[in-house]
Amino acid sequence: MPTTTASAVCTTVGNNILLRLTSGERDVKLKALRELKNQIIGNRTKKLSFLKLGAVPAVAGILSDAVSAVDVADNDENDRIVKDIIVQSAAVLGSFACGFEAGVRAVLDAGADILIQRGCLVEEMPLLKSYMEVVDAGARSLKMIYQSKMAPKYDFLQEENMEFLLSLLNNESENVSGLGASIISHSCKTSLEQKLLFDAGVLKRLTSLLGGSLIQRDASLESIATIFKNNPEVVSQFVGPDTGRTLSCIIEIVKDRFARTRLLASLCLIVIRNASPCYLQDVGIKTKLINNLLELLDDPGRVGDEASFAFSSLIAEKEDMQKLAFEVNGVDKLYNHLQKGSLHPRRFEGILLALADMCSKLECCRSRCLSLQVLKLVVDALAHDSSDVRSAACMCLRSVSRSIKFIQNLSAGSFMNETIVIPLVRLLDDTSTAVQVAALGAISNIVVDFTTRRSTFIRLGGVKLLVQLSKSMDSTIRLNALRALRNLIFLAEDKCKEEIFMELTASLLASLICDPEPSVQEQALALVRNLVDGRINSVEYIFAEDGIILDAVGRQLRIASKAEIEIQGMYVLGNVATGKESHKEAVMDQLLLRAENKAQSCIIKFLQSNDSRLRTAAVWAVLNLTCSSSPGSSGRLVKLHDAGIVSHVKNMVNDPCLDVKLRVKTALEQFNSFDDSLASTSCLQFLTVRAVGELSHVVDPSSKEEESIANYFRFSMKKNKKKKSTRTVKFCFDVPADSL
């Protein structure tokens, strides 16, 4: 009951103010504007109430009338009141727009942004231009509007707009020059716009503002970072001999006493380094940046919320920066903030993402996270109310799960338990697409397992959900669902494969292989590649439903233009070629079939490819088709010879790629064995090539980290050798591009 009464009183007051805004007496109108401004400042509830009453259009109308009524030839008391009305109207409209998206929309719908610009800042009104109160009020209001993503984009391509922007930046008022900087930060998005601003001399003016007031300095730093972002050309022109002093100035500002200024200066340097890594290579400067951002995490306000995101942008995909961050106890400091509990969702998300980036490449960071038991806090975050936090927690889990220690514990069963799997499976049905994609990324790592521990995930309905997501209308979800299925089926036992295939069905796999998105096609082929790896009965899956999967693979190989698709497709056929005679003949039919308007078969094109990976995959298929212990090998060799394939293989004997060269050498020995009738002594065992999923992020497959993971996998296979086929297995550690 008290709430209803308070609401009624508020409505009565609001109606009274709006009534006085319509008064014909300017003094009454001016007093009502001041009262309205005091009512709504910092009060979202009252802003909403006055919005519903139509206050914004009413104030916009008052501003329009006041601008039209200005007598530029008269400077009497009457003109002073008009000026005050313009100032108060602009202030009210700015207050509605400040941090309140509904208010911004109402202001824009009323055309108030244009009214403020024309009424307060244009040169056609010389009298008002001399009134700094009017100019400042208009500038402050427009700054509040341009802080919103809903604000209109400023067109820098129009010459008059560029001239107006320069006039703002050159204005002595900190609010006016700050408005110019805010327009740049909001609207400059393309490299063309960045170049136009640079050529117009905007950067020179912004750098001169670094020595101005706090407002000018902060606005200038933010705008400079916007013009530099992802534009190495502008950076290289700016960071030259003539502007080295400016760069040194920004570096010094990192030590400023104001936290927001330090953050903005750090962001500016990060943007410079990310755009052009050749700059800011000094270890001392990089360490200073890392320490500064970690210290800013202690700030209780917005600066502390944003510092972790800046930290992430500094270290993401940069092993040297991650190593420096680890050396200054970055993992421990981030963990200490996580332990505080009751974090603002934005801050919580940022810290989780920072940990995810720290653990993306270095085993020492992941190991430290596991030692600190960060994983428990991360798993708890999977159930957070904020979708952004849930997504960040998945990304963090995904990075940490790349740890050798994690994989070893996973195989031992201590991590592959319901504590981790249950919340991840639940997130597959999350209302947020971003959370679903992030959960799929984490699951892709969790399910890479050489033991029977996949049963937990399958028992909880994980496979059914993955298959369901592979049918999603969102290609990103389809892609990541297939990647998870691909890893789930990697080195899986026959029973596991059978369960997964029954859910997938041959018709669905065939349709996914022919998906409109090339990245989805690639993952579908990689899944089939793992499906048909292993025992001969695994090869039979590709012939289900009259061989529609094999037909789809062959069709994609003949029409695909992306090397990654061709590589996966060739490895599928290479694995099928390890099967029975009928399997090998089916592969021959696909390889020798020419596409329409093509003068040669696809395999000749692959053998001639500039991509060594594709050449390797093609030679593997030839090797498995011509294994001398197989009854029909001699006949297939004749067909390959007649198709010109054998001669192409012989011409590759000096291939620049060592892997290709070794495979070709083996193939030639195998070909010669038929001529010398020595098939019994030169029998090449069948080789199947598997595809393992990303294990989190894009990495160099030749790196020590990947080598250690691959060695662990090989060791696991040796332990289970008796359970496996007697055929030789070539392990292929295939790391696809990161989709997140």
How would you sum up this structure, described in words?
The protein is mainly α. The protein is built from 44 helices and 2 strands. It has a two-stranded parallel sheet with strand order 1-2. Helix 24 (374-381) packs antiparallel against helix 25 (387-400). The longest helix has 21 residues, at 77-97. The model is unreliable at 123-130, 677-686 and 693-740 (pLDDT under 50).
Going across the biggest sheet, name each strand in turn: 1-2
**How far is the N terminus from the C terminus?**
50 Å
Rg of Cα set = 33 Å
State mean pLDDT (0 to 100 scale): 84
Give the helices and strands, then pairings.
Blueprint: H1 2-21, H2 26-40, H3 44-52, H4 55-69, H5 77-97, H6 101-109, H7 112-120, H8 126-130, H9 132-146, H10 159-169, H11 174-187, H12 191-199, H13 202-208, H14 214-228, H15 232-238, H16 244-253, H17 259-275, H18 283-296, H19 302-315, H20 319-327, H21 330-339, H22 345-358, H23 363-371, H24 374-381, H25 387-400, H26 404-412, H27 418-427, H28 433-446, H29 454-459, H30 462-469, H31 475-488, H32 494-504, H33 506-513, H34 518-531, H35 536-539, H36 544-559, H37 563-576, H38 581-592, H39 602-607, H40 612-625, H41 633-642, H42 645-650, H43 658-675, E1 688-689, H44 704-719, E2 729-730
Parallel strand pairs: 1-2
Quick recap:
This is Armadillo repeat-containing protein 8. With 740 residues, the chain is mostly helical.
Key terms for this structure?
740 residues; mainly alpha
